[in-house]
Automatic annotation (TrEMBL):
The keyword Zinc-finger belongs to this UniProt entry's keyword annotation: no
Annotated Gene3D superfamilies: Class II aldolase/adducin N-terminal domain
Pfam families for the chain: Aldolase_II (PF00596)
Protein name: L-fuculose phosphate aldolase
Annotated GO biological process: pentose catabolic process
SUPFAM superfamilies linked to this entry: AraD/HMP-PK domain-like
């Protein structure tokens, strides 16, 4: 399915994207810059010395091909390296430069994140490079960065500086930037746990080849229940993105409509920007006409078929819980009563089971084990409603973060069997 035409003006697209980057705390008030090269060859870029948390469309600067400038402010001092990248790579039409904490950590330790941590990160981030230091705003910095992009790199760590990513348009570039930062943050956390496991060529190929083979159909008028579930999914997916439990290119959320049908997130659409009408109705081997269901739709369907009590499912990649998925360290949630009551004992599924056609993924969850860690692919959470699943996802991520943080203080002390038994009786747990 082709991408729709972009009809948003560069001023508005840059302003909205910078607002999102700042809101996600992936840059500071004075740090970072974005640009778009339009079809006429003009470069639209964020201004110099203007609060990145309070940009307006009129703050965005246009630099024409002849070097003349339209705008209320001078262009970013980093304009030279934007220009150098565009001259080097005709396929790149948008650039994001910022100083997100995890990627800055890699830049000051002179390393690059290994995106083989996850198939989606490896696919979205493209080839990764490292550009030697040069003074900010200098022609030398432009040459250093452009050299890496000339070698087909798409995501480049700048030594003692930050990161630059490029893409075909600003939406794809933001997704690349976000996925790169997600991989970096997860690696920082995973390295605190133990040895990190990376995906082989065969495993990456296995993930890339999965797909769904639904026929399209017209489901007719939506019931009130379907309409309400669409609203709930839309609200909670957006909340998940803003709380960094989901990112724009990762994760799938679904809700059962009736015995055979369910709503699920679409593929190839920014999760935070989803509208109620974007969710896809799946019924047996059919999916709603004109829409593409998530590539995880068959895995969701298998779980619904095996477990009638499950009414909602999420596959997600919150950083701390996902760090456990990239190591062999088990996540023991017997830490505080809430964690155990909500999650019970979290299972671990070997890599790729969710891509299989044998329905094996459904064996890793049950009424007494509603959540599972998926090796090198985040987490799976099930529940009795959209709210129930989201609540459990929050508890799972909070528990994982607390366990990782506790290891910096001392030995993690889990609740003994006697306390667990007391909780099981008090809360009528199976």
């Amino acid at each position: 399915m082709n991408q729709p035409r972009n009809v948003i003006h560069p001023r508005d697209e840059i302003m909205r994207t910078m607002d999102r980057i700042y809101r996600y705390r992936m840059t500071t008030t004075s740090g970072g810059n974005l640009s778009i090269r339009d079809s006429a060859g003009n470069i639209w870029i964020t201004p110099a010395r203007v609060d990145k948390g309070n940009l307006t469309r009129n703050d965005i600067v246009c630099v024409h091909q002849d070097g003349s400038i339209d705008g209320l402010h001078p262009p970013s001092s980093e304009f030279p390296f934007h220009k150098a990248i565009y001259e080097t790579r005709p396929d790149i039409n948008a650039i994001v430069h910022a100083h997100p904490v995890a990627l800055v950590a890699f830049s000051i330790s002179r390393q690059t994140p290994n995106t083989r941590l996850f198939h989606q990160a490896h696919s979205v981030c493209g080839k990764v490079g490292f550009a030697p230091y040069a003074c900010p705003g200098s022609e030398a910095l432009g040459e250093s960065i452009a050299k890496m992009f000339a070698q087909s790199c798409d995501s480049v760590i700048l030594e003692n500086h930050g990161v630059v990513v490029g893409g075909s348009d600003l939406a794809r570039t933001f997704e690349r930037f976000e996925a790169f930062e997600f991989a970096g943050k997860t690696l920082v956390k995973a390295n605190q746990l133990g040895e990190v496991r990376y995906l082989t060529d065969q495993q990456l190929k296995q993930a890339a080849q999965r797909g769904v083979d639904f026929e399209s159909y017209d489901p007719g008028v939506a019931s009130a229940k379907e309409q309400e579930l669409r609203r709930q999914l839309c609200d909670f997916v957006r909340r998940g993105c803003r709380q960094r439990l989901l990112i724009s290119t990762e994760g799938s959320f679904s809700a059962r409509v009736d015995g055979e049908s369910f709503l699920i997130t679409p593929t190839q659409k920014d999760r935070e920007l989803l509208r109620a009408e974007d969710f896809v109705l799946v019924d047996g081997d059919r999916r709603e006409i004109g829409k593409l269901a998530s590539r995880a739709a068959r895995a969701h369907q298998t779980i619904y078929q095996k477990h009638p009590h499950v009414q909602a499912i999420v596959f997600a990649h919150p950083v701390n819980a996902t760090a456990f998925s990239a190591t062999d360290v088990p996540l023991d949630v017997r830490t505080i009563p809430e964690s155990y009551v909500f999650l019970r004992d979290v299972q671990r599924a070997e890599y790729g089971v969710q891509y299989g056609n044998d329905g094996g993924i459904a064996n890793y969850v049950s009424a007494s084990n509603p959540a599972a860690i998926l090796e090198n692919d985040g987490v799976l959470v099930t529940g009795s409603s959209v709210l129930d699943v989201f609540d459990r996802l929050e508890v799972l991520e909070s528990t994982a973060e607390a366990v990782i943080d506790a290891q910096a203080i001392g030995k993690v002390s889990v609740m003994p069997d006697s306390v667990i038994e007391e909780l099981r009786e008090a809360f009528h747990l199976k």
